[in-house]
Specification:
The protein has a four-stranded antiparallel beta sheet with strand order 2-3-1-4. The chain has a domain of about 70 residues: Alpha-Beta Plaits, CATH 3.30.70. It is an alpha+beta fold. The protein is built from three helices and four strands. The protein is globular and about 35 Å long.
């Protein structure tokens, strides 16, 4: 009985580490929008948009989508390699307003 419990615990431990490794490499990404072509590139790749501003979009991308964006010459920045739902606040100052760090 004791070896059975140990076997189950080992299995659960392996499962705990294997599932994230099997998941698709999803990242929170900032994509610079410089033209209508950038918007079309996002639409053609099926990228989920979380927030839009006049100059950039916050999106969720897979590694494959980031590779395709690179091939298309679209400028982007990965903000979080392991995004968690509900952990972010998006604060954006319109125009030339500057947000204070205090």
């Amino acid at each position: 009985m004791r070896s059975f419990v140990v076997l189950i615990l080992v299995f659960l431990g392996l499962l705990f580490f294997a599932i994230p490794a099997m998941a698709e490499d999803i990242s929170l990404t900032k994509i610079d929008i410089k033209s209508q072509e950038d918007v079309k590139a996002l639409a053609s790749l099926g990228i989920s948009v979380y927030a839009k501003t006049p100059t950039f979009y916050l999106v969720e991308t897979s590694q494959k989508q980031r590779d395709l964006l690179t091939e298309k010459g679209t400028s982007f920045q990965t903000l979080d390699d392991e995004p968690m739902p509900g952990l972010y606040y998006f604060v954006y100052a319109k125009g030339t307003k500057i947000l204070s760090h205090t």
